[in-house]
Specification:
The chain is an alpha/beta fold and about 150 residues long. Helix content is about 40%, strand content about 20%. The protein has five helices and five strands; from the N terminus they run βαβαβαβααβ. The longest helix is centred in the first third of the chain and has 16 residues.
């Protein structure tokens, strides 16, 4: 049974579902829970201004505080961190390796076709490169390619 669960959080409802699942595991047994949000260090790139503007420490602290407040609604003892990276997949895998995660629980949007080609899939990247098992959570009613009974 995993004792260290990493939950990458992106603000989506599927992330909330993954966080709720991990928090319920934490409530049932001894589990360390870590929630990370990957924050792009250069979020402002426009067609007019081609030079990216780095995220300020004030913006980062605001993001951390917002994430802490949100996660507290699920778990009072989860550790929370905002990770600076322009690519979330590699940042999640690196954090899981560094922290020694036993399981990654994350939401997935289930994009396919052109949307998947254009936007990519963070969950797919993590699945292929993670140092531990990955549990993905979708919205209820979404088509599920594989189901593991009893996990959710």
């Amino acid at each position: 049974m995993p004792t260290k669960i990493l939950v990458p959080y992106d603000g989506s409802s599927t992330s909330d579902r993954a966080l709720a699942w991990a928090a319920s595991e934490q409530a049932r047994r001894t589990v360390e829970l870590r929630v990370i949000q990957v924050f792009d260090p250069y979020p402002l790139v426009t067609a007019v201004l081609s030079v990216p503007s780095p995220a300020s420490e004030e913006v980062l602290e605001g993001a951390r505080a917002e994430l802490r407040a949100h996660v507290a609604g699920f778990s009072k003892s989860a550790s929370v961190e905002v990770v600076l990276a322009d690519k979330p997949g590699p940042a999640i895998v690196e954090d899981a390796q560094r922290w020694g995660a036993d399981l990654i629980a994350m939401g997935t949007h289930g994009r396919s076709g052109v949307a998947h080609l254009v936007l990519g899939s963070v969950a797919e990247y993590v699945m292929r490169h993670a140092p531990c098992p990955l549990l993905t959570v979708r919205e209820p009613g979404e088509k599920k390619p594989l189901e593991a009974p009893g996990l959710i």
